[in-house]
Design a protein that fits this description.
Layout: E1 5-9, E2 16-20, E3 25-29, H1 32-38, E4 43-49, E5 53-55, E6 61-63, E7 69-73, E8 80-85, E9 91-95, E10 109-111
Parallel strand pairs: 3-10
Antiparallel strand pairs: 1-2, 2-5, 3-4, 4-9, 6-7, 7-8, 8-9
The structure holds zinc ion.
Family: Belongs to the Gfa family.
Organism: Metarhizobium album
Keywords: Lyase, Metal-binding, Zinc
Length: about 150
């Protein structure tokens, strides 16, 4: 069977990625940090093993607010592209909007359902996780426990 290949690109086209194989996880995300970072009421994240995503020209620029988390974006057009969490080893999440064929990626769950905006309605039967949909490395913990305000000297 042929290996699946997908392509992603930002709004201006400066950043392009080739993605190999099947994504291991696709979820809606109602998280408030992601809402701020991305600018939409919710997003869909597509999870791939890090080594299956190749940026062909240059990689996204990254920004980190929460220790261990890097959000990737295009410095030219501002498209949100990626999310990498140190607590999720060898995983990268790609925004659905970055994909050239977003219709091929169907979510399997809702994450951070407790943060869903009250006027967002879904009639689907997908599982609704109140918080994170994926387990983090116990040594690193969950992002909400890593916020800078929580640090003690
Ligand atoms: Zn761009």
């Amino acid at each position: 069977m042929a290996v699946r290949f997908e392509r992603g690109s930002c709004f201006c086209g400066a950043i392009v990625a080739e993605l190999e194989g099947e994504p291991f996880w696709i979820n809606y995300d109602h998280d408030d940090d992601c809402r701020k970072a991305i600018g939409g009421p919710l997003t869909v994240w597509i999870g791939y093993p890090k080594d299956k995503v190749a940026f062909t020209n240059k990689g996204p620029r990254t920004f980190s607010k929460t220790p261990g988390i890097e959000r990737g974006f295009c410095p030219d057009c501002g498209s949100s592209i990626s999310y990498v969490d140190a607590g999720l080893r060898n995983e990268i999440r790609i925004t659905i909007g970055f994909m050239d064929h977003p219709e091929r990626f169907k979510p399997v769950a809702h994450g951070s359902w407790r943060m869903k905006l009250p006027w967002v309605d879904f009639a689907d039967a997908l599982p609704r996780f109140p918080s994170y949909t994926r387990e983090r490395d116990v040594a690193i913990g969950y992002p909400d426990k890593r916020k800078v305000e929580d640090k003690k000297d």
